Amino acid sequence: MKIIGMMLTALFLAGPAFAQSHSVWIEDYAGEDIVAAVDAGKTTLIYCVGSLHSDGPVVAVGKHNHVTQFVIQRVAEQLGNALVLPILPYAQADTELNLTNWEAGQVAAGTVSLSDEVLSLVIKEVVHTELIGVRTSAGLKGPGFKNVL
Fold this sequence. Notes:
It is a single chain. Helices cover 46% and strands 5% of the residues. A 3-stranded parallel sheet has the order 2-1-3, with helices on one face. Strand 1, helix 3 and strand 2 form a beta-alpha-beta unit. The protein is mainly alpha-helical. It has 5 helices and 3 strands, in the order H-H-E-H-E-H-H-E. The N and C termini lie far apart (53 Å). The protein has helices at 2-19, 31-39, 63-79, 94-97, 116-135, and strands spanning 44-46, 82-84, 147-148.
């Protein structure tokens, strides 16, 4: 019983430490923590587009999303002042949709394509809502994000 009580006490005391994120991914933060991170010097917001499209029989359709996630995390960590929005997993992929030569290993299955107009609007709305959300949050002391990549 003593051991269980000590374990519960340790978990209770460690709880606030678990809530504090050192991640560069904005989705890992609570809303108040995003405002606090911006107040503490996170001045850059990064938003990236990946892609889902087929490139042949042995290449995963989500390759661009996986590479983007790895690279952009490193970029944000190197900058030290950046938070990263979730990667948009869709892009303009009309060329890939036109590849349908089964013998050559060219198939369009798994490809998701957005028109240039829709892609532009999605990017604009996502970034805009995050900027406004931070700027209008109670407790923000500064202007919010200064740089958007």
